[in-house]
Amino acid sequence: MELLYLVCSIVSTFFTSLALPLFLTFQALLRRGRPSRASDSPISLYQGTVWHERRLPVHHAFNYSVLYAFIDLDRTLQPPPDHLSADENRRFAETNGPVFLLTIPRSVGYEQNPLSLYNCYDLEGSTQHLKKCIVEVTNTPSDERVSFVVNPNSDLVAKPLHVSPFMDMLGNWRIRANAPGENMIVTISVQHPELGDYFVATLKAKRVSSSVVSDHAMFFSLMPHKVAVWIYWHALKLWWKNVTFIQHPRSWALMV
């Protein structure tokens, strides 16, 4: 049943991604000529690459281009839908400074965010430093979400979510993230009791000048749909390579 749900999600995302460019083209024509106020925006833009490598039980690696927003939550009227506010983050992380959200914004009502990261700063006099990160992980296609606090320099957390049907729930996540500036890097590796350090995912991105992009919505157009297509495509490749399909723990509970 879970495999059927996965296939239906793949088909739905594929046909939606074919139709939406027409809508976005029309939207861009309507907005053409409007003045840009990028310098006043609380959003910084990052462009980069996500890289995945699995070493066992078969080798499988891929990378794809990605676009991210880095949002100053203290300067926005409200946080993006289904995300924490600046004050909620400060309480959760026990920090006292500004909070920035690294995420892929919705595009045409659709969101696909395997990873969002809240950067929580502490103020010490006139200086600020990145003290904690709140990691927000969402799985596909179940759309379940977990959030947890980590030390950005390096932290180890017990795996809290069934992220992929081709990975079991054993092991820990090793997480590292730098304070975003002109460049940013986020690394998550899996430490498994039997397979060792068999999987790593990395995001490397550079800041894009907001003056180059006059319309944030167009900059991120269909980005969530593209991420979904990449996830499903490589899930099919793993299935084709005979990697074991592992049912969601929720499914096990229903069968008991």
UniProtKB/TrEMBL annotation:
Instruction: Give the source's domain of life in one word.
Output: Eukaryota
InterPro entries referenced in this protein's UniProt entry, alphabetically = DUF1365
The UniProt entry, under PANTHER family, shows: OS07G0153300 PROTEIN
Name of the protein in its database record? DUF1365 domain-containing protein
